Amino acid sequence: MRASGYGRRDSGDADGFGSAKERDSGDADGFGSAKLRDSDDPGGFGPAEQIVACDPDPNEIRRGLEMGLIDRGDTRLERVVDGVSLIVLAVPVLAMRSVMGELVRCLGDAAGDVVLTDVGSTKAAIRDCALEVFGRMPANLVLGHPIAGSEKSGVAAADPELYIGHKVILTPEPDTDPAALARVQAMWSACGAEVLEMGVERHDQVLARTSHLPHLLAFSLVDTLARQDERLEIFRYAAGGFRDFTRIAGSDPVMWRDIFTANRDAVLASLNDFEAGVARLRVAVERGDGDAMLAIFDRASHARHYFESLLNKTSYQAEYQMQQQGNLRYRMSPGGAVVGRIRVPGDKSISHRSIMLGALAEGVTEIKGFLEGEDSLATLQAFREMGVAIEGPYQGRVTVHGVGLHGLKKPSGPLYVGNAGTAMRLFAGLLAGQAFDTELTGDTSLTKRPMNRVADPLRLMGAEIDTAEGGRPPLQLHGGRALKGISYDMPMASAQVKSCLLLAGLYAEGETRVSEPAPTRDHTERMLAGFGYPVHRDGDTCWLSGGGRLTAAPIDVPSDISSATFFLVAAAITPGSDLVLEHVGINPTRIGVINILKLMGADLRLENEREVGGEPVADLHIRHAPLKGIDIPLEQVPLAIDEFPALFIAAANARGTTRLRGAEELRVKESDRLQAMADGLAAIGVEHTLYPDGIDIVGGGSAEGSNYGGGRIDSLEDHRIAMSFAIAALRASEEIIIDDCANVATSFPGFVDLARKVGLTLTEESGEEGA
C-alpha cells in the first residue's frame, strides 16, 4: 500500500514533504509522512510501504528524495496515485479547485478504499471546492487542519516532531464514512497530535479570531512602520515585544492572501470586533480614563494567564469548548506523622462572594486572603468579561473597581465557571436581573449537576432561564425581565440556593424572603450587611428588599475550614500528631466538622478567637486522640456537608460504628459522594453499609499501626474524594493510588506541598503511566 502527498509550489505556498507545515494556524502546504492502515489491523495504521509525492517543482521532489522523506515523486499527479490508499492534499486554498479537478480524473487508479484528507486552514472554501468538483461531498474525504508550525516553508524546513503535542482539527460531515474518519484520526495520532472535531463554520470562525486576525494585524503593523521615513530607527530599536508580535508577518504572503480571500466573511467579522475594541481603547486614552484603560489591560492580561492556566492544568479547551479526561494520579505511601503549623488557602465561598459583591458595589473593594484556585479565578475572570476592572490577584490580594448594581456589561460569549457549582448558582441569581442575555457553562463535572433548584424559584420571580436536559448546565438567562420578590420555602438546606435568591432579590421589586429547613452557611447575609445592604433574619427566614445599593468595603478572607478539614482529620487519626491551623474561619454555619470531631473524641481546641470583617476566625490546635464511632446528629449534617468525605476517613479509624443519615445532598455534588466514598472504602477494605441518605462505617479502631489496607481509588474528578483518600494513607497498611486528581487545584491550590510539609508521603504521576 502507498501514500501520496500533493503539494503545489506554483501558487507560492509549500512547506515541503515530511512537514505538512501549518504556519501559526495558516495553510499547511507540504506533505506529512502518512502511516497506512496495517492489513492485519483494519482500524489501525502501520508503516506505509511507500510514500510518494507530487509537486510542480522538480527541485522539491529531488530535495525530498535526498532527505529521505519520500520514496519517489513526480510533477504530474496522475503518475503517483496508482494504488495509493491515502492522499493528503497540502496545497493553497485557492489552488484546491484545480488540484481536485486533476485528482478526480485519475482517482480511479487509486486503491478501492482510498481516503482523502487535507491540511488547509479554511474549511468552508475547501468544502465548496469539493462540492463543485465532485458534485457532492465524497464520503471518503475528511477535511482537516493541523495547528502547528512556523513561518518557515519548503522541504528543507521539514520537522519530524512538528505535530507532537499539537492539535489537529477534523471537520467531518454528517455522511463522512466512519472508517475514513478513523483512519485520518489514526494517522494524526501516530504523528503525536491531539485530534479534535469541530463543525466547518465553527472552525472558520475560531481560526479567524485566533490565527487569521493576528496575522492580518502583524502584516499591517509591519507594513505601516516599514513605509515611514524613520523606519530604520524604528526597527533598529524594536523591543522583544515587537519582534514577538510581528514574527508571523514573515509568513508566506501568497498563502495569507489566499486565506484572507477564502475566509473573508469570518475575518471581516473578527476585524470588526477588533476595530470596535481599539475604538474603545482610543477613547479611554484620549480622555485619560484610567479605570477604563485598567479594565481593558487587566482583563486582557489575566485572560491570557487564566486561559493558559486552564489549558495547562485542567482539561478545559477554552478556544474549542472541548473536554479531555483528567490525567493526574496521586500515589500515597502508607504511614507518616502530622506535625507543624500551617495556614491553608482562603475560604472559597467567601472568595467567590467577595468578587461578586465587590463588583456590584460602588467604590473600590480591597480583598486580602483571596483563594487563587481555579474556581475563584473563574468567578474573577467572569466579572472581567462583564467590564469590571480587577487588579490582581497577587499573593492573595485583589482590588475590585465596583461598577454598581446596574453597571455590568454584556459579555462577548458564554461565561465559563469551570468546576464551580457555587459560582454558577450564585451567578444565576445576580444575572437574572440584568438587562442583557448571558450563558453560563462549566466543565464536564459541573454539567452533570442539577440547576433546577435555582432555576425554578428564579422563574417564580419572573426570570426566564433555559437549561439543558434534566435541568443541567449550560444555563441560558434572558435579560430585561422584571423580577418580583417572593417568599420561598427551600425544599432542601442549601446555602447556594439561598444566596442565589438573595442576589436576585437585589434586583427585584419588593421583598425576597427565603426560609430554610435547617441552618446553612450565612456568608452572603453577613457580607451583604458588610457592604451596607440591610438583610433581616427571624428564625429560619431571612429577607431583603430590592432597589438598594452596595458600598465598597475591605475584606480579609479567612482560611477555608473545608480545606482545613483534611488536615484536622489527618492529625486526629495519626498517633503522635500535633498540628496548628492558623486563621481558620469558624462561622457558626460552617463548624459542623469541629462539632463532629469533638463528639468523636478529637483533641481539638480553638485558640486566638477573633472577628475579621464580620467573620469569626480562630487558630485550630489538634493532637491525636483515639476516636470513637458516633451517630452524627441530624442538625450537624448541613453544617458539615462538604466535609463528610474527610469525616468518613475519621470514621474508618474510629472505634465502633459511625452512622450518618439525612445527607442525600452528598449525591449531587461534584460526584455522588456517598457512592464514591463507599466504593473507595470498599477498595481499601473498610466495612460499611450504604443507604440512600447516608452510610454506616465500621472503624478499625487500632490505637497503633494500620486500620485498613491499600488499594486503587477512582476519585471521579472530585477533589474532595481525592484529598480524603490521600489522608487515609496515614493509617493504611499498603500504598493507596488515587486516579483523576487534577481537580484538586479547583478548591485547594498548594494541597500537595502542604501535605508533604506536615508529613504525608505523596507522589504525583501522569495518569497515563502504568495504566
TrEMBL record:
Pfam families: EPSP_synthase (PF00275), PDH_C (PF20463), PDH_N (PF02153). PROSITE patterns: EPSP_SYNTHASE_1, EPSP_SYNTHASE_2, PDH_ADH. It is found in: Cytoplasm. It comes from the Bacteria. GO terms for molecular function: 3-phosphoshikimate 1-carboxyvinyltransferase activity; NAD+ binding; prephenate dehydrogenase (NAD+) activity; prephenate dehydrogenase (NADP+) activity. The keyword Amino-acid biosynthesis applies. Phosphoenolpyruvate binds at residues 348, 421, 449, 496, 673, 720. 3-phosphoshikimate binds at residues 348-349, 353, 494, 496, 642, 669. The keyword NAD does not apply. One of its GO terms (cellular component) is cytoplasm. Keywords: Amino-acid biosynthesis, Aromatic amino acid biosynthesis, Cytoplasm, Oxidoreductase, Transferase. Residues 23-315 form the Prephenate/arogenate dehydrogenase domain. Gene3D superfamilies: 6-phosphogluconate dehydrogenase C-terminal like domain, Enolpyruvate transferase domain, NAD(P)-binding Rossmann-like Domain. The active site is at residue 642. Its main location: cytoplasm. Residues 1-53 are annotated as: Disordered. It is an enzyme of class 2 (transferase). Catalyzes the transfer of the enolpyruvyl moiety of phosphoenolpyruvate (PEP) to the 5-hydroxyl of shikimate-3-phosphate (S3P) to produce enolpyruvyl shikimate-3-phosphate and inorganic phosphate. HAMAP family: EPSP_synth (MF_00210). Belongs to the EPSP synthase family. Monomer. This is 3-phosphoshikimate 1-carboxyvinyltransferase. The gene is aroA.
